[in-house]
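User: Please predict the structure of the protein below. I'd like the answer in structure-token form so I can feed it into my own downstream comparison script.

Assistant: Understood. Taking the following sequence of 745 residues as input:
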Amino acid sequence: MGDGRILEPGHKAAWILRLLCTLGIVALSGCEGDTLYDAVSPDVDPPVVGVLSPQDGADVQAGVRLPIQVSATDEEGVSSIILQITGAVTETITLQFTPPRTEVQADTAIMVPVGAEGTLQIRATGINTEGVQGQAEDVLLSITSVDGMAPWVSLSVESMDRMELSDSIRVTIRAFDNPGGSGIASTELTAIVTNTDRADTLVLNPSESFQGQASDTAAAEFSFVPPFIDDTRLPDTLDIVFFGIAYDREGNCGGAVTDDFTDEVACTEAEIGSTEYPAANAVTEARRIIAVSGRTSMPPGGGNLADILVDTLRSRVYASNLALNRIQILQAGPGTWGSEVWVGAEPWGLAMTVDGDSLLVANSGGTSISFVSLVGEPEEDLDRRFVAQNNSLFEVEVLENKLQAYFYDFSDRPQFIAQDAEGRLLFSTRPTSAAQTGTVRVASTLPTWVEPETKLVVVGEDVVADLKKTTIAHVDSVQTAVDGSCVQIWDHRPGFQETVVTSECQPLDQALAAMDAHRAVGDSDIWYVKGSRWEMDRLALRDTTFVAASGDREWVAFGEGGTGAHDTGRITLWNSNSATIHSRLLVADLVNNASERVTGLDLNEDGSLGSASGNYASYYWSTDLRLQGSVTKDVPGGAGAVLHPSLPSFTPGMPSSDLTLAFVGQDDYTVRILDTTHFTERGQIHIRDRIVGSLRVGPPLPTDNGGLGAACVGDDCVVLKLYGITEVGGVVIVDVWRRDIEDLI
């Protein structure tokens, strides 16, 4: 063979067979087909070779570059592919692969001379590392002076089923001309838009031209907002039929209605009105798009939004980003994000201080509460950062005349927060894997105190009778002697952590009497109940617990989510005037459904009406936690509940008006407008994404209604603005128009 190798008998016979086939001396079945098999070397299979492009039987234009793409596979490894071009062009191209690979794909090209006629034949032979060859099926091409083949075209559409008016529909058209063709000259989109509420039709027909050197591939993207929308009648439904069109430089036209290149689709024309538009000659279905209310803004940097708060004075929305440890500020008018404020770890609940000058932030990744100054450029006032004390509960049990002390610890990580009329901070704590129960806590301060004082909020109903036990709260520690003969209680003077008092180790009654004496002079704030034990099912919180304050801050409500049928949530109501829990009620007792949860909470201006969203309905109660009414949800689920910010003081006979409104997020992508006098629906606002977090409400912005703000009168006026955290992780701002609210006759 000229390379010094001695062929084994089987390989020598195979080489001779290939030589005879090549010279045309013999005509054997092994000389033809997709691969020339080495019939006498059964242990080494030949490579599998293919010509991917151009396709057999295609036309190629004289005077242009002809791209060629080949592939080969072989378990031993493909070392080279040899291309033999014969006919109007004679050329051999060798493609080497170093190192050899089991799968290869390669591109090359030849020039077809100007004026060439006849045919071209492409033969591809692959050689593996053992020297065994495999041959692809020959490709025969016809040379023409004119490109008569239409391009192959694909069309892909990116759009959501539900779209806000600022969302984009993106259509990509890709075109591929025949190898050696004249090249893609332009692409064109025809979108036929029908509004289901109107009889006429809109046609969008944008195009893009490709200048310069002809290319056999091209792509163009067309983007537009939902067209043909009546924004006064949302939701508005569109049916859109999309056609992709491409022309090569010889004027050949190809079409597409899908993203599949394999089908060749001819072009046709669609007559809309008196105008004809290019279209693909293929059957396709319209894409249905529902245009809805709202404008969603995604927070910069991603993360996870935990809570939002509306600042109507400054036209801002503050959002706590749990993952980024920041408060992000959304400008409510343009819906754009502005400055950011670093706070503590994992910020969650937000509230405004009584004076409106600072933002309270519950840092659930630690035990602190941040104060963010809103005077000038927002920033945290680190000197005011408050670290909550750890608060535990205790029991002392008498067992065979011996005393035994127990303590109960809870998560002390703030979750949701509010400030009452007297300036006290009330917050729920976040259950964690280490501390699986949270509580309701109050932090208060006096001008003479060195530091604020934090307490667990407990009431008499949190204990049940047990003659052998005594429950103790608001102290630092309780211990019994090793022999159980006495008990010692420690506490500190409220507002002065370093001033510690103790009962000394005495029998239980004497120890309690000693602490009573300390309390009488202000050195302790011990709370205890003899003959009782703690009822943890009433006291401990096992799920997200929302906090809401009335507009006058005289009332603060806590709504526990609850984790299921055997662990129902509860609603707790704090009264600022008495500085105590006014009432606490299991949600099951309020709504007569043990599996109901709390997924949203709000109070009206004076706290006379409360609202809670659950899985199955929204519920409304008075100050004594008596159910006043409910509205069943159309579909289970959904989150968020908010009352009209100017809802009057509640009385059962209060007439319905544009102020007696409540808003509830529902799982069918709507916000329901409900009446709090007759407990019925007065409208629905369709949005793009479900509300999964806080839902807030505020008045129109000064820039709304053509600059009239809240002074606008009539159906075409924005009367309220809703703000909610949605399932995509953004904040949606929804205009509530007067026309959205149905009158009750």
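That's the full token string. Residues 295-366+540-740 form a domain with the Methylamine Dehydrogenase; Chain H fold (CATH 2.130.10.10).
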